[in-house]
Amino acid sequence: MIGNILITIAFIGAVFSGLMYFLNYRGYQNTLNFARIAFHTMATSTILASVFLLYLILTHQFQYKYVYSYSDTSLPLGLLISTFYAGQEGSFLLWALWMAIIGVILQQYTAVRGDLEPRVMAVYSLVQSFLLLMITPMVKNPFALIYSEPFMATANTINSQLLKLPILADYIFSDKATGQLYVKIDQSLVSALQSAGISLREFIINGRGLNPLLQNFWMQIHPPVLFIGFASMSVPFAFAFAALIKNDYKEWIKQSFPWILFASMVLGLGIMLGGYWAYGVLGWGGYWAWDPVENSSLIPWIVSVAAIHTMLVQKKTANENSIGAFAKTNLVLVILSFVLVLYSTFLTRSGVLGDASVHSFVDPGYFAYLLLLIFMGTFIALGAGLLIYRWKYLQQITPPQNKLLSREFALFTGSVVLGASALVTFLGTSAPILGKSVQVEFYNKMNLPLGIIIGLINGLSLLIKWKETEGKELLRKSTFSLVSSIILTIIMFIAGVKDFNMILFAFASAFAFFVNAEIAYKIIRRNLEKAGAYIAHMGLALLFIGVIASSKYDKSIDVNLVKNEPADVFGYKMIFTGYSPTEDGKYAFKILIEKDGKQYEAAPIMYYSEFNQGIMRNPDIVPFVTKDIYISPLSYDDGTSSSSSEGTTLQIKKGEKVKYGESEIEFVSFNFPQDAMQKMMAGGDFEIGVKLIVRNYGSKYEIEPKYGIRNGERIDEPTRIKDANIQISVQSISANEGAVSLTVGPYSSETKTSEVKREVLAVTASIKPFVGLVWLGTVVIVLGFFIAMVRRTKESRV
Amino acid sequence: MKARHYIGGAIILVFLGLLFYNFTRTNIEYESDFTKVMQSGKVCKATGVWVKEKSFQENIQDRTFIFYLRDAKNNEMKVVYKGTKPNNFEIATNVVVTGKYENGYFQATDVLTKCPSKYEGQNINTSGS
């Protein structure tokens, strides 16, 4: 109840404050106080609602559907807190929470800067109203009780003593396929329990738990950071929209500049944290898979970065007589970056990506889908509508474009290229809506040339002066960078970068790096504050070089590591030494890696997950300065069944035929001796024959490998057919289903080579050169953004 | 001024042309009807349900995973995937395989499993207690 009331108050507060702020802008002086009170009420209620949800999670109140669905009693504190945003409802609440907190700061920021507050806050409140509407009790309510709709809870989350109660008989169901027991929790069960004096809290004693894929360190960081990015992207939008309302386009650039820098910084960081998560834990093998969900947050980021550059031009070129160049472009880009955040939400939340992405949410229900569409549609319509309305005026006051060899034009070109890259990514990511999908190749092919141009412009634009530069001067200034980058490119060429486009990309990135490094070096000593842009650009160049090296020139191989037998992998000696259980009930497979007398250890993880009903795998990384050794586990065979490592496991049902190589194996029937069953039950020796027909190039062989116990030991002797180059043994049988599991392998000589158990760990081992530059680049970019933000915040004061 | 516009326009046209060309060339369609998948022989993303009752093979040595998928019309198709059984395969409600049908089976280069984030109990057979 409390949660619902708080969300409702917050929603009403947001709507009311938006309205009051707007009226205040239209001249009603006395509404300003109401607006502020309403806004702060909204913020307080949103914060309290979040605290309340956190309290419910921490105290394990499983009578709440959300708490039940995503947490359980076994999670450590950090992960338990992270279940706050493990589902749709909670992640919308988290978004609204950041909006509330950022909003309070924004209110203070705008209150002391001219007449900004009513306009900006009106728009901002409108955005927050929509977000809060999504989590009101009618839509995606994080505070819904579990029985609000009939709910199937697994029996193991219910107090087992109470399960025996006679009143429960009608509510217990079993799934025939899995044998899993469920309890149907609905209104009538709750009343029945109530009359028996049992509270729902005593009844449901555990939750379903958090998906193991999410159970790791990065779950605690990546989503919150990403959502700060999403929330702060609405601030520059509010400024742009406020400018359109007032029809005044000069001041908003300066005033919103620190905000868009902050938004881009945090969103970019959030995206890369997700990349590291995918790389280090999920074992995707790389940090970027062009997965639609990754892409959808990348697109607004690229557009916002483009906006930053053209905003800079407008800021520089503005004077008493002119609003500055690219005024229209800036409005369009800033509005677009916010709308694209909404589009990203729509793609990932509405279920339209259902089949296309690994980590989008499932279908949220028609109502929420519609609401998301309206949310997005409203802001597209408002943004586009007002722009069109003001367009003619904007056209008149925007000064004409500049000289070709000017920094203004270079920055503009940079933005256009960024825009093109955003368009490419947008198109590919949106394809599933049309029931299509593009291959990863599409993104790489299209973005590579754009990356080259971005690298070149990144460097060139800084060598060119504002207004106009002489060609000769340009050449003189760029000597150092040109020479250095040519040298670096040659080194990379020798190291293996042979692909023409890649050479160009490497050169462009190196050029960008040296130009920025040179300038940054000069500036930092005099005035660190002004070095932000150069540091960020240097970071981007580093990231680019890291991308080139790690994605295009990585080496990867599948190897079978036999326990205690060294294997040579890319010049490293790798020895699998055995496995040990970890603290959280998983298994770490230890691999010793040796080279030049130095030893390292990797311990990739595999475990069976009850939640996912399957084997889960986590890679492990041995980082070096110049490369990462990346080991992801594939499978482990303990050697007890003579099988898997030495052959293929085939499961065949009676009457079926399965191909193996050139042979076809048909399972005809079992040959049960009459007393086999009894002997088997008694634990004595028994033999069951498995009648098979093997066909190979017209030849037909009828064989009968045996399954059972002979002299107290499992029969483990393959039946061999030399002419068909095949040998078959029985791994297990399932008499009830009429199926057998066979181990089939190529023919080998009669005498067994060894009786020793061979424990085999299969892994994919990769060498990823300079992948560390990707992370270093990210950190440097964030640092650069941060320095720039500090500087622009100072400048924004009137 | 004029010349610059022409050059800019030309660049944009070339870019859009490339974009369109690459988009259509790398485009794969989703197909939930296996008869069409089998006939066309083109690369596509086939969506279906894993046939748990049928035999499957997991070959660790050359890392192939062979299983059967069924579409909504009960057509079954053999899928050969070069790789290990993906995470979440057992509980997947839907499997999306990327590849093409050739020589009597679907050669998958990628297997994506769609998991229910909520079971909601829709698959449960009521058999009483």
Task: Record keyword descriptors for this entry.
heterodimer; A: 798 residues; alpha+beta; six-stranded antiparallel β-sheet; 23 helices; globular; B: 129 residues; elongated
Structure notes:
The complex is a heterodimer of chains A (798) and B (129). Chain A has 798 residues and is an alpha+beta fold. Helices cover 52% and strands 18% of the residues of chain A. Chain A has 23 helices and 24 strands. In chain A, the strands form five sheets. In chain A, strands 6, 7, 8, 9, 10 and 11 form a six-stranded antiparallel sheet that branches. In chain A, strands 15, 16, 17, 18, 19 and 20 form a six-stranded antiparallel sheet that branches. Chain A is globular and about 105 Å long. Chain A starts with a helix and ends with a helix. Mean pLDDT of chain A is 88; it is low at 641-645 and 751-755. Chain B is α+β, with helices and mostly antiparallel strands. In chain B, strands 2-4-5-7-6 form a five-stranded mixed barrel. Mean pLDDT of chain B is 78; it is low at 117-129. The chains are: A alpha+beta (798), B alpha+beta (129). Chains A and B meet through strand 2, strand 3, helix 16, strand 4 and helix 17 of A and helix 1, strand 1 and strand 3 of B. Strand 4 (436-438) of chain A pairs antiparallel with strand 1 of chain B, so a sheet runs across the interface.
